[in-house]
Amino acid sequence: MIRSLLPVVEIADNFPSYNLPPSPPPAPYVPFHLTLDDYKANFNPLGLLRQDVLREMKGSSDEYRSANKGGHGIWEFLEDIGKPDETGDFQHEIVCVYFTEAIVQQGKDGLSRVMAEVVKGWKDQGKFPGPLAGWRNELYSIYAASYSSGLNQGPPTSPIMLGAGTFDNVAFHLERAACALFGLATFGVHMTAYEGEGSEMKVWVPRRSKTKATWPGRLDNTVAGGTTAGSTPFETIVKECDEEAHLPEDFVTKRLKNTGVCTYFYITDEGFLQPEVEYIYDLPLPPSGSAEYIKPRPHDDEVESFALLSIDALIEALHSGDMKPNCGLVFVDFLIRHGFITPENEPSFLEIVWRMKRTLGVAMPGI
């Protein structure tokens, strides 16, 4: 009997499909926008908020307002007044959260500063210990819809990324560990290094260090990492190749191939939302007997070892449950692109493909 790889994809893409904007998100999540106009225009939100995070945001906004002697807070909370209940009381429901105009006018730097103060305060107070315990001191870029009324306000700042405009719609920067609190999209790079072609192909698969804060000891993609603020995907993967696999920059840049993206929506065991986009790369290695050959080897404390697996062994590893969830999804994408998984041998082929290219319903670069 054929063993479908759909369960591998479902582990990473485990948040149920839902109606995208202009429909509201599924209860009890609330859309988080840069401005009220963005909400009214049915733009994709920055992220999706849980009710416990919403309560903490209200408290932080009230504290900010009090510190400003009754001035503006950080956020506004748009309410919808529903029908009265059996006692005659009207039910108030928050349908959108957005930044106050005074905060938006401070621009990207001001928004970043305020968000940093809030999440650092929560961390210091011991709130949300699950996500915030993994504090990295790394900033991620948070995007608003490209036509957001709140972009490009405040004093001029240097562009966060250089290029043809794909990354221009950055609203603010935020500590990596805090992104899941607000259901914000995060971005990373994943690369598969391989040798040979066809039935002779083999793939380099690392095992994560047992000291890693997340998924210790699990199997991983050859090289992977998060794209921090100020870095492009290409810059990130080249840097990670050196740091994680001891692959020199000139060797990598001559051979690296961008093959697209994988998207999926992950909900953690604690119920925090992580819509994620991974820029995908292949690195075909030269023949092992050639003078140019270099194989991956550990270079920092993030990788314990590398193993060269046949395609059959890789598929067995995917079924074993020993792999970091999103890395399993990326390997399934690799197997499809190289013709090892086909409509003829995978009963859930279409669903797998659709699930790995999912529309996430939150703001993205250039969209």
Automatic annotation (TrEMBL):
It comes from Kwoniella dejecticola CBS 10117. InterPro entries: NUDIX_hydrolase-like_dom_sf, NUDIX_hydrolase_dom. It comes from the Eukaryota. This is Nudix hydrolase domain-containing protein. Residues 174-331 form the Nudix hydrolase domain. Transmembrane segments: none annotated. PROSITE patterns: NUDIX (PS51462). GO terms for molecular function: 8-oxo-dGDP phosphatase activity.
